[in-house]
């Protein structure tokens, strides 16, 4: 399977907002309070917020295409753009989402492979990310790819404080 990546720019904002909300809703809406969930969508995935992130030179969004179909996206952060660690030796994979109809096709693994390649090209030692502790499918996915748990941090959906496992993949062991 040949995935094609397209680096997102501010001109891609409308599509980025749409796919961000669509994939996040598909993944988490059913498990969250509707008011808190809408508050999250209206803040974290607003056009204004995503545009600010797109303009940050240390944050990188990519659309992922299979053939000519947009199937998902991911975002990684370097340096001070990282949400927690801000470790110059690492990149944070902050978002990775695949549209529901394209899941279980190996696209997630393909995206991780691309992120690993980008991290190696940048001379990084590891990739880290946060995964909701109740998202057992995602935890299993990352563990199967060699990510290990190393801590926790709070993550808010609206006013609802949830916990994420922090996981890392050491690139020197690949």
TrEMBL record:
<dbReference type="InterPro" id="IPR016181">
    <property type="entry name" value="Acyl_CoA_acyltransferase"/>
</dbReference>
<dbReference type="Pfam" id="PF00583">
    <property type="entry name" value="Acetyltransf_1"/>
</dbReference>
<keyword id="KW-0808">Transferase</keyword>
<feature type="domain" description="N-acetyltransferase">
    <location>
        <begin position="3"/>
        <end position="172"/>
    </location>
</feature>
<dbReference type="InterPro" id="IPR050276">
    <property type="entry name" value="MshD_Acetyltransferase"/>
</dbReference>
<dbReference type="GO" id="GO:0016747">
    <property type="term" value="F:acyltransferase activity, transferring groups other than amino-acyl groups"/>
</dbReference>
<dbReference type="InterPro" id="IPR000182">
    <property type="entry name" value="GNAT_dom"/>
</dbReference>
<protein>
    <submittedName>
        <fullName>GNAT family N-acetyltransferase</fullName>
    </submittedName>
</protein>
């Amino acid at each position: 399977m040949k995935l094609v990546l397209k680096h997102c720019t501010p001109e891609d904002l409308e599509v980025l907002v749409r796919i961000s909300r669509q994939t996040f809703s598909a993944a988490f809406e059913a498990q969250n309070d509707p008011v808190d969930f809408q508050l999250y969508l209206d803040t974290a995935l607003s056009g204004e917020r995503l545009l600010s992130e797109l303009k940050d030179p240390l944050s990188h969004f990519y659309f992922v295409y299979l053939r000519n179909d947009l199937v998902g996206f991911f975002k990684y952060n370097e340096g001070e753009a990282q949400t927690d660690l801000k470790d110059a030796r690492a990149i944070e994979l902050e978002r990775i989402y695949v549209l529901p109809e394209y899941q279980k096709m190996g696209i997630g693994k393909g995206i991780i492979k691309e992120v690993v390649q980008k991290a190696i090209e940048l001379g990084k030692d590891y990739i880290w990310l946060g995964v909701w502790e109740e998202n057992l499918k995602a935890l299993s996915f990352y563990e199967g790819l060699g990510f290990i748990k190393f801590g926790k941090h709070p993550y808010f959906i609206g006013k609802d404080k949830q916990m994420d496992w922090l996981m890392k993949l050491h690139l020197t062991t690949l």
